[in-house]
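Researcher: I'd like a structural prediction for the single chain below. Treat it as a standalone chain; there are no partners to consider.
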Amino acid sequence: MDDAGPQGSSEQIWSVFEFARRYRLAKREENRLLMLYGPTASLRDLLANAQRHSFIPQSADS
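Model: Treating it as a single chain, here is the predicted structure.
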């Protein structure tokens, strides 16, 4: 069976490195995903498990 056929976007296999670059993940988060999945993973898994951290610190009173 040919993997190049039409598939849903959630079934696409992505490079963790490319995913981290495209979604501007911190190096620490990229390394966490690499430890979880290795060098490739489905887009669905990456989107479900990636954590982006805000650049704006949260104040204690808001």
